């Protein structure tokens, strides 16, 4: 590990700031009746700088990461996905195991749009929970 | 996998951080190998053997 984590964090923050500013300004200029000439000039100068910054951050990321941290992340991701899928399958049993509670829940929804939003959240939640479980299991294994 | 990393390090009065610096890995990596929670990759095992001027099988042994 030749580069410290703080240097990598600084690089990522700087990259995020430059990328965010450039994206924000371009969105603003894009909404003007005509894209300003100074915006084009700024883009011409800033985009190569952004590319160089991306390459630099990629390089320091490779230097700040070692095989053990990669192994930990891989373990967390694999467990997280498996747990997420298992929880997703389990959540599908809810209408079968608790039909009355399920019907009451469906009746409480205010129309198809709310049902759609609830479905999105309920479909995503097991995987988010799985990610957390994956991180915790990796931490417990390698602490 | 069992290993003699902790003994070899202690013989040289190196801290985990010293050894990590010499191997270009994190201190957590050295700790995980010493506590046998993690088996190093073959390139890292060669690097460790090279650093201690020993053969891999003199440092690592099957559990």
From TrEMBL, chain A:
The chain crosses the membrane at residues 12-29, 35-57, 81-105, 117-140. It comes from the Bacteria. Keywords: Membrane, Transmembrane, Transmembrane helix. This is Uncharacterized protein. The lineage of its organism: Bacteria, Pseudomonadati, Pseudomonadota, Alphaproteobacteria, Caulobacterales.
TrEMBL record, chain B:
SUPFAM superfamilies: lambda repressor-like DNA-binding domains. One of its GO terms (molecular function) is DNA binding. It comes from Asticcacaulis benevestitus DSM 16100 = ATCC BAA-896. Keywords: DNA-binding. InterPro entries: Cro/C1-type_HTH (IPR001387), Lambda_DNA-bd_dom_sf (IPR010982). SMART domains: HTH_XRE. Residues 5-59 form the HTH cro/C1-type domain. This is Cro/Cl family transcriptional regulator. PANTHER family: DNA-BIDING PHAGE PROTEIN, TRACRIPTIONAL REGULATORY PROTEIN-RELATED-RELATED.
